[in-house]
TrEMBL record, chains A, B:
This is Phosphoribosyltransferase. PANTHER family: HYPOXANTHINE PHOSPHORIBOSYLTRANSFERASE, HYPOXANTHINE-GUANINE PHOSPHORIBOSYLTRANSFERASE. The keyword Transferase applies. GO terms for molecular function: glycosyltransferase activity. InterPro entries: PRTase-like (IPR029057), PRTase_dom (IPR000836). Residues 23-141 form the Phosphoribosyltransferase domain. The lineage of its organism: Bacteria, Pseudomonadati, Campylobacterota, Epsilonproteobacteria, Campylobacterales.
Amino acid sequence: MKYYSYDDFKIDTLSLIQRVKDSQFEAIVAVARGGLTLSHAMAEGLDIRQVQSIRTELYDKSVKRDKLEVFDACRLDGLKKVLVVDDIADSGDTLKAVMEYLGKKYEDIEFVSCTIFYKKTSVYEPHYWINEADGWIDFFWERDFLR
Amino acid sequence: MKYYSYDDFKIDTLSLIQRVKDSQFEAIVAVARGGLTLSHAMAEGLDIRQVQSIRTELYDKSVKRDKLEVFDACRLDGLKKVLVVDDIADSGDTLKAVMEYLGKKYEDIEFVSCTIFYKKTSVYEPHYWINEADGWIDFFWERDFLR
């Protein structure tokens, strides 16, 4: 298990901002909780004021394939281009569910996804990602605030 | 202007978690953008999965007293106790507007506010705050990701 520090995060987030900066995103959808700190940093770096959040939960652990329910409190009507931000595409289930959900709900909006980490075994590949992950990552936001 | 680093933030956030941990909050409302990184850290430390966001904007700069409009993407129905998180109560206008708005919209929910910084000149004092601020604070999330 590799500790992912704030210093690592700073370098990678600046790279990610550099990658997506020429697209004119009007808003960021943060996939909670993992994508919240990254969304904040990207919003500052890209000068985007609108940051909203979305999250998923397993709704039936009894079925073979885990099913995800999307909890959506986003209000995106009238927008054209929205950046969806999460920390990692691991299994990829979360980001896949979120992107499908948003695409269906807002047919006129172009959604572009980005993460810091991507696993090759993920069922979904983000449009932009920075590092390939091969093991479990111990993110500073998960480690540093445990009581 | 004082640079507020991630290391400072880690110490203060752990104090803030300690202060509010005995209340059983079911959700966090993050005041975007300033409260997003803190909300993520608090959500991890308090083991709260629901993090939603809210933001304000000036809607008429011509009037003497600046007026704030609240942009609300929260769905809080059915909850009882919600923590509202922002980085600083500076003028206090934002947090005052958000707390009044939420209190009116959800009469059955108890909203408790917290920030890391509080200025004595603020028109609103959060229920919990850690440091008194006397000048401009250069938060790491505003500084470290500028291109």
